[in-house]
Design goal:
Helices cover 35% and strands 22% of the residues. The protein is of the alpha/beta class and 168 residues long.
Amino acid sequence: MGKPNFEKKLTIAVIGGGRCSAQEAVLAETVGRELAKRGAILVCGGLTGVMEAACRGAAIESGLTIGILPSDDPTDCNPYVQIPVATGVGYARNIAVVKSAQAVIAIDGDYGTLTEIGFALKSNIPVVGLNTWSLYRNGQEDKSVIKAEDAVDAVEKAISLAKGQKLD
C-alpha cells in the first residue's frame, strides 16, 4: 500500500470575543465565508460572538469548522461548529486554538483574544487584525499584528502568510 495522495488543507484560526457588535458579526461572517470559498479550514474557540458568526459564514459556503471548547462538553459549541473538541481546560484551550492554525485572524476581542494573539506571535504564527488590539512596546507601535482593511483583505493576507509568502 502506497502513501495516500492528498493535499494538506490550510487551517486558519478566527479569534474574537464571545460578545460582539452587529458590525463585528458581519465582519466575522464574511471572514468565515471567504475562508470557506478558498478551501481553508476554520478553527476557533467554538462559542458565541465572533466565533459563531465566523462559523456561520463558513457553513453558508460549505466550509469545515472546528471549535476547540473550554468545557468538557462537546454540545457547548455554537450550532455552526462541525467538529467540536471538548478540552475541559478553560482558557488554556486558547493555546490549542492558535497552535492548530498556520495563521490567525483576530476580530475585535477582549483579554482572551489578547492572550491568543500573544500565544500565536510567541509561536511565530502570523496574526492579521481586523478592528482588534494594537500593541505598543516602549512607547513604539509593535507592528506584529498585521492590519487588514476589510474581511477579504484579512483572509487574503492570512492565507498568503499561512503559505509562507511575504506580503508586499
